[in-house]
Specification:
Elements: H1 8-30, H2 55-69, H3 103-106, H4 110-120, H5 124-135, E1 153-154, E2 159-160, H6 168-172, H7 198-211, H8 220-230, H9 234-253, H10 263-281
Antiparallel strand pairs: 1-2
């Protein structure tokens, strides 16, 4: 009797097909394939109205700046700045961003922003706006290695590591210990703290903003904290104007990854908060010298004074 053909090959083929189908099913269920981008950013606490210039708004910004500069201010606030000396290529522009940021990339930051807000009581929109301003949400070429073009600052939030024996980064490097580290996020280093780790750096940035007076409100105190983050000069005023304008715009219209900053909002923020601080930075012009006429009088107000008699 002839022996029947072996069924081993058929069983192997069937087993392989079954294993492949099981692997595809597992991948779909775990989201490895076929996943659509559905993660949402943290909820916006409140829609901040467009700031209006006025004595109270100007006073709040100036007072916040003075508090951060006062001798009795916190050690963090007295650490020294120039944190944000970045290349213009990494900054957002009016209208649209200079580079397109994928939503799937931003989703890796949402749990970090939420943790930073919950831990330090700082509006996550302000933290995210600083992150956008500094490294375009960690997409700038030098974000995860080396220092910036000014050879002073590094990492996602561009902390200064060269301004003294105890640098700005040194003061807040361990801020990550106060919040729970997400299981997964975009760039996690093997050692902590690391200026190049997204969680370590963003938590440190939120801590620094909190120490400089920022809270949930996107107001004069938030502007002053952004101003301190950069440094106290005219560049810092422009920086704070743009950072706060972006955050307020997000609060009004929703978090928009690739939207730029509305010029009208920047102007409104500057008029309310930036202009008074900028005016205080510029020394008053010297009074014009009065001209003395030949008779010994001084010309002024369109009148001539009679020569004095001795």
């Amino acid at each position: 009797m002839p022996s029947p053909p072996s069924e081993l090959r058929s069983w192997l083929l069937a087993g392989s097909i079954g294993a492949l189908g099981l692997a595809v099913l597992i991948a779909v269920l775990t989201g490895a394939i076929g996943r659509t981008s559905q993660a949402s950013p943290p909820p916006v606490l409140i829609a901040t109205p467009t700031p209006v210039p006025g004595p109270s708004a100007a006073a709040s910004a100036v007072a916040a700046v003075r508090r951060s500069q006062a001798p009795g201010s916190t050690r963090l606030a007295a650490a020294g700045r120039s944190v944000a000396s970045h290349s213009p290529a990494t900054r957002g522009s009016l209208g649209v961003t200079q580079v397109h940021i994928a939503r799937s990339w931003l989703e890796g930051f949402y749990p970090i922003y939420a943790t930073a807000q919950r831990t330090f009581g700082v509006n996550w929109l302000l933290v995210a706006s600083i992150h956008s301003q500094e490294t375009a949400f960690s997409t700038a070429p030098s974000t995860y290695h080396g220092l910036n073009f000014a050879h002073c600052c590094g990492g996602p939030m561009q902390f200064n590591v060269t301004n003294g024996r105890v640098t700005t980064w040194d003061y807040v490097a361990n801020s990550y210990i106060y919040g729970r580290r997400p299981a997964n996020y975009n760039h996690q280093t093997t050692g902590h703290p690391s200026i190049y780790d997204d969680f370590d750096s963003i938590m440190a940035g939120a801590h620094l903003l909190s120490a400089d007076g920022a809270a949930y409100a996107l107001d004069g105190s938030a502007w002053a904290a952004a101003y301190d983050y950069y440094g106290h000069d005219a560049g810092g005023v422009s920086y704070a104007d743009e950072v706060l304008a972006r955050a307020i715009g997000w609060s009004q219209h929703g978090f928009c990854i690739n939207c730029g900053v509305e010029a009208a909002m920047v102007e409104a923020v500057h008029a309310a908060y930036g202009a008074p601080v900028l005016a205080a930075l510029v020394p008053p012009a010297p009074a014009p010298a009065h001209k003395t006429d030949k008779a010994g009088g001084r010309a002024g107000n369109g009148q001539r004074r009679a020569p004095s008699r001795r």
